[in-house]
Write a structure and sequence with these properties.
Layout (H helix, E strand, L loop, with lengths): L3 E2 L2 H23 L4 E7 L3 H16 L3 E7 L5 H13 L5 E4 L9 H7 L11 H8 L8 H14 L6 E5 L6 H10 L3 E5 L6 H5 L4 E4 L17 E4 L3 E4 L5 E4 L4 H5 L4 E2 L6 H20 L2
Parallel strand pairs: 1-11, 2-3, 2-4, 5-6, 5-7, 7-8, 8-11
Antiparallel strand pairs: 9-10
Bound molecules: guanine.
The site of guanine has 8 residues, from β4 and α6.
């Protein structure tokens, strides 16, 4: 079997176009333009790339983009004061503080300071609690993007066996809650899981979010399963260059799976599209 390639780039473009339509309609009807503030502390090159592309796509969707760049050595109190100002600013409907933050900062405290209604990352404990109890929450963008691709590929997910590899707060845990909400039977595997290949072999749905290049092998996959690869790893290409690979051995797995996301062009574009959708949602809720 050669797996169907799940085109995250095309799906994301459709979501962004729908968001742009709704932004234009909202402006006409209410005179309101959604605004997203992105805060970057330091000069991590990967974070700079993400922040730049978030800003560009925010503007392309017709929204206002506010970028705040702080020096790597800035005091935590200064970052907290900025977040408080953004909380109080009526032109800002969504706030995203790019992670990871420098070691001298307490990320949990910074996230707790964001107004939950503006927490478009869905990282604030009150959104985490709402999602975990099956209530209406701001949902983290990467797992939300994965879920939308799964629904488009499989339709009803009810009763399917899902294995999430990775237990991070950003992806693994919220992904598990979303799949439970779809009535999947969910297993969260991690670095201490015994017989990981055996666990993954049971899965109709595999979501890999571990940050280990090409860890999930083709012979771990149940024939016909759907594989979502959240990993973005830069590896040596052998010719002095580097290349991007996921957490999944794409060649090996696409020979066995029914459907699979590529890297790049799978989960990545969906994350930003979901961020824009969350910002629009936050703006609509703020304006009744
Ligand atoms: N760093 C890597 N992914 C993310 C994300 O989804 N949100 C934020 N704020 N930082 C990140």
């Amino acid at each position: 079997m050669t797996a169907k390639v799940i085109d995250g780039k095309a799906h994301a473009a459709r979501i962004r176009a729908a968001v742009a339509d709704n932004v234009a309609r909202l402006r006409e009807a209410n005179g309101v333009t959604p605004g997203l503030a992105v805060v970057l502390v330091g000069e991590d090159p990967a974070s700079q790339v993400y922040v730049r592309s978030k800003g560009r796509m925010t503007v392309e969707a017709g929204m206002q983009s506010f970028e705040h760049k702080l020096d790597v050595g800035v005091a935590e109190a200064e970052l907290l004061a900025l977040v408080e100002r953004l909380n109080a600013d009526p032109a800002v409907h969504g706030i995203l503080v790019q992670l990871p933050l420098p070691d001298h900062m307490d990320s949990a405290k910074v996230i707790r300071t964001i107004d939950p209604a503006k927490d478009v990352d869905g990282f604030h404990i009150s959104n985490v609690g709402l999602l975990g109890t099956g209530q209406k929450a701001m949902v983290p963008c990467t797992p939300l993007g994965c879920l939308l691709m799964l629904r488009e590929t499989l339709g009803d997910l009810s009763g399917l066996e899902a294995v999430v590899i990775g237990r991070s707060n950003i992806v693994g845990k919220p992904m598990a809650h979303l799949l439970l909400g779809e009535s999947c039977t969910v297993t969260v595997a991690h670095s201490r899981t015994r017989d990981l290949p055996g666990v993954v072999r049971r899965a109709d749905i595999v979501v890999a979010a571990v940050g280990r290049p090409e860890m999930v092998k083709g012979d771990w996959i149940k024939p016909g399963a759907t594989v979502i690869d959240v990993g973005i790893n830069r590896v040596d290409a052998g010719d002095g260059k580097t290349r991007l690979v996921g957490d999944v051995d794409y060649e090996g797995c696409s020979a066995i799976a029914g459907a699979i996301t590529p890297v790049p062009g799978g989960v990545g574009p969906m994350t930003i599209a979901c961020l824009l959708a969350n910002t629009l949602t936050a703006c609509c809720r703020a304006n009744g």
